[in-house]
Amino acid sequence: MTALRQTIIRGGLEWLYFTGAHLALKPLLGGMGAILTLHHVRPPRLDRFQPNRLLEITPRFFTQVIELLRDSGVDVISLDEMYRRLTRADFGRRFVCLTFDDGYRDVRQWAYPVLKQAGVPFAIYVATSFADRLGELWWLALEAVIARNDRIGLEIDGRKQVFDCTSVAEKRALYDELYWWLRGRSTDAELRTIVRDLATCYRVDITAFCKELCMSWEELAKLAADPLVTIGAHTVNHPMLAKIPAETARAEMELSRSVIEAALAVRPQHLSYPIGDSTSAGPREFAMAAELGFKTAVTTRPGVLFRAHRNHLTALPRISLNGEYQRLRYARVLLSGSATAMWNGFRRKAA
Ligand SMILES: [Zn+2]
Fold first, then answer.
1. Which of these, 63, 264, 302, 346, has the minimum number of CB atoms within 10 Å of its CB?
2. Which residues are found with C-beta within 5 Å of the ion, ligand 1?
3. Per-residue pLDDT reduced to its tens digit, 233-252
């Protein structure tokens, strides 16, 4: 019986093990360290239609994760320190980096006080058009269109289609269908045009989400002044880089770095590819980020860091703290029994 399983059973949480919650922890087995991906940290909302909930965790869960990391003896380090350890093959201690994508205000409101109190470093990857109040959080525009309407007309592959979405179940199904259809478009421009048209047609202000949710440059400047905070680049317009022309992709990376430098007087050394899966960032982007001199660049491909990643510093995997697996499923498994024993268990299993 593995230490992990013992720990879980000791906590009386066998059912979590058998429901497969432990699978969420599998990526943590082995590896020298991990980079965690977070987006929003904010109190739970009551809406039944929340298709983007996977992008948010509650302050309570966030606090539990920070406590777990602190108690487990893992080093929580900055991206610069991670870079140092990877390039110098300094793998004596396991480490975790905390990274927040996009630059949401709730991170400052709910996560920062916890991190500040614990003295934990973290990084925020800023999409500059979001801070400029001009960006398109298109996944939220799509959510709003579906949330506010009972019927939606859309031209799909040249054919006008009408979708009924009165019930929450219909809204969820339609969101999934349209989201993945959009993500499957061959160019980022096509996706943008479709969502822009939808937003216009159903009177959703696509740029309003920036103002509501993202930090302004002023707010970012206050955070950036804290030595615990690393500001990274996340492009200007948050495109799927692999789906835009090479020169535009290069400009997205380079320009976001100079805009951040002009606004915050810090030159970002680290990059996060928007969306970050294999359809959004691939070998072309990895090479570009290296050529442009970024020390590291992160994807959203799941995984932990191994020694070999020192040779792939602009194609690093991360582990997402997914809002759908928080609270009971993830937190209680993580926190049941002695966290240290769990980490030791992981180490033994890896050996
Ligand atoms: Zn992003």
1. 302
2. 101-102, 274
3. 999 999 999 999 999 999 99
Would you state the structure tokens that stand for residue 48, as one six-digit string? 């039944």
State the DSSP string of 300-332: EEE--B-GGGGG-TTSEEEEE--GGGTHIIIII
Domain ranges of the chain: 31-135+216-320, 138-201
Amino acid at 219: E
Report the CATH number of the 31-135+216-320 domain: 3.20.20.370
**pLDDT at residue 282, as a whole number:** 97
CA 237 to chain centre: 16
Question: Six-digit token pair at 159?
Answer: 């054919």
Q: How far is the CA of 231 from the centre of ligand 1 (A)?
A: 14
How far does residue 333's CA lie from ligand 1's centre (Å)?
Answer: 28
Confidence at 326, pLDDT banded by 50, 70, 90: low
Question: Could you tell me which residues come within 8 angstroms of residue 291 by beta carbon, excluding any fewer than 6 positions away?
Answer: none
The whole-number pLDDT of residue 172 equals 95
**pTM for this model (two decimals):** 0.86
User: Which residues is 161 bridged to in the sheet?
Assistant: 154
Q: How far is the CA of 238 from the centre of ligand 1 (A)?
A: 6
Mean pLDDT of 70-74: 78
Centre of ligand 1 from the C-alpha of residue 303, in Å: 18
Point out which residues pair with 237 in neighbouring strands.
Answer: none
Residue 18 alpha carbon to ligand 1 centre in Å: 33
